[in-house]
Amino acid sequence: MNGLSTARLEGGMPVLDIPRDYNAAYDLVERHLVAGRGGKIAYIDDRGAYSYAELAQRVNRAANALRALGLGLEDRIMVALHDTIDFPVVFLGAIKAGIVPVAANTLLTPTDYTYMLNDSRAKALVVSSALTGAFADGVAASRHLKHVVVSGGAGPAGALGLDDLLAVAAPVADTAPTTRDDPCFWLYSSGSTGMPKGTVHVHSSPIHTAELYARPVLGLREDDVVFSAAKLFFAYGLGNALSFPLAVGATTVLMAERPTPEAVYRRLVEHRPTVFCGVPTLYAGMLAHTPLPSRDALALRICTSAGEALPPDVGRRFTAQFGVEVLDGIGSTEMLHIFLSNRPGDVRYGTTGRPVPGYSLRLVGDDGREVAPGELGELQISGPTSALMYWNNRERSRATFVGEWTRAGDKYAVDAEGYYVYGGRSDDMLKVSGQYVSPFEVEAALSSHPAVLECAVIGVEDEDGLTKPKAVVVLKRDVRDDPDALSRALQQHVKERLAPFKYPRWIRFVDELPKTATGKIQRFRLRSLEASARESAR
């Protein structure tokens, strides 16, 4: 049997003791039975509520069901499930059995799924019934897949029903003899700049994120109710809705449908969560939604934001509306969760706060040396939750995981008080009039205008071949101003807030911005569309 982790403070810093023989699923589930918490509600989804004791039995049944299919230690299964109780059950059941779950984004294309099934060499696919069509080509093309297991409805011919498998499996299961450094699960990167990369994490990483961020930064506790609009397949959502609440014994609300403002508000009012985890585009959409619920209708004590930098005006307006702080932070698939964050009572909108205890950060210039305070540099992180590697991709692994440091691909500056200010993705930085311009800085200025819902800034060459900022803007639904007049007003708005050379020379209004399935704006697609339009105009 694998032991449970324990945490303590040394000199005010959290220190985690994880035994060598260790299984993440055993730790996250068994601790509640040991603590007498079996009768407490662990999860609420669209179908019902489930206690910690019931969760433990379901996880054991899943472990036994997967073993009965012939799956064993270090085999991989792909998990493509909507956010229902079945996700944590299958994910943790696989881990308890020593099987490696590969969480798949539920919003990708058949081409992506075909690639991921072959790249991961998954021997089984556990999939929500609504997604089986998108996997049809991948299932047919897979050279390694042996079983398709369907959750929540009928599947294609030959598929197995998850409910049927769980019903006949035993509710007690042995824990696989894994160690804290064994591969535990994979998360595929969003693939915003190429094919998705299988990011391999070890058994010790989920509890590390909980003890380094969820407890000391969020102050997460047993009486909290957590609701994450970010889905479980997303590294951010996996911590929010699985490892964090399970580490402390909290209750988690799951939502299978797409996180529209209306759907999110419905859960916030009905279940009254105390902790809400969203992304910047969702917060902006929630503020633009009508009618807004009253402050008293919600029970929030803290909110978090990640995925992209939170525009300061969005954070300030959300706090003014609902009386709750939004902790803007940054994490990554490679680091599993947030390593840099604002703190409750110490939120500085427009910054990403300070390093999470247990992580070291540095900002490096093009010459490989650390930059001076106030200068932009590439963000690099050292901490216990760094991924082992990108599966089957040695070149990218060596470029990203450099000794103890993991390269984030983001530009930051740090001020004299140690607060980090986002400068944009390294690939998105603009050189205007010989000086670096952060697209995010211009976007933040534009977002503070009352007509703007969201925007993105890219670099475009003028008639002299010089790069200048161009803004692509989504307006709020009730804005009916003349486009030319509004463009001039937005340009003036930026000039009044930033150095003159930073204002967008051109503004294009669109109905929506291209985004990844995790909500990140795809500026590379905007650049590609701009290049194609210019080529067609020649």
Description of the structure:
- This protein is of the alpha/beta class and 538 residues long.
- Helices cover 31% and strands 25% of the residues.
- The chain is built from 15 helices and 29 strands.
- It has a 9-stranded mixed sheet.
- The chain is globular.
- It starts with 5 loop residues before the first strand and ends with a helix.
- The mean pLDDT is 93.
Q: What distinguishing features does this structure have?
A:
29 strands, alpha/beta, 15 helices
Straight-line distance between termini: 69 Å
Lateral arrangement of strands in the main beta sheet: 4-3-13-12-14-15-16-17-18
**Low-pLDDT stretches:** none
Shape: globular
Major β-sheet, in short?
A: 9 strands, mixed
Number of strands: 29
Put simply, the count of helices is 15
Q: What Rg is obtained from the alpha carbons, in whole angstroms?
A: 23 Å
Helix content: 25-40%
Summarize it.
The chain contains 15 helices and 29 strands.
Show the helix and strand layout.
Blueprint (H helix, E strand, L loop, with lengths): L5 E5 L2 E5 L6 H11 L6 E4 L4 E3 H17 L7 E5 L5 H11 L3 E4 L6 H11 L3 E5 L3 H10 L5 E5 L8 E2 H7 L14 E6 L9 E5 L2 H10 L10 E4 L6 H14 L2 E3 L7 H10 L4 E4 L1 H9 L13 E4 L6 H11 L3 E6 L6 E4 L12 E2 L4 E5 L12 E6 L6 E2 L3 H7 E2 L2 E10 L5 E6 L4 E3 L2 E3 L1 H9 L4 E10 L5 E9 L7 H13 L10 E4 L13 H15 L1
Parallel strand pairs: 3-13, 5-6, 5-7, 6-10, 7-8, 8-9, 12-13, 12-14, 14-15, 15-16, 28-29
Antiparallel strand pairs: 1-2, 3-4, 10-11, 11-21, 16-17, 17-18, 19-20, 20-23, 22-23, 23-24, 25-26, 27-28
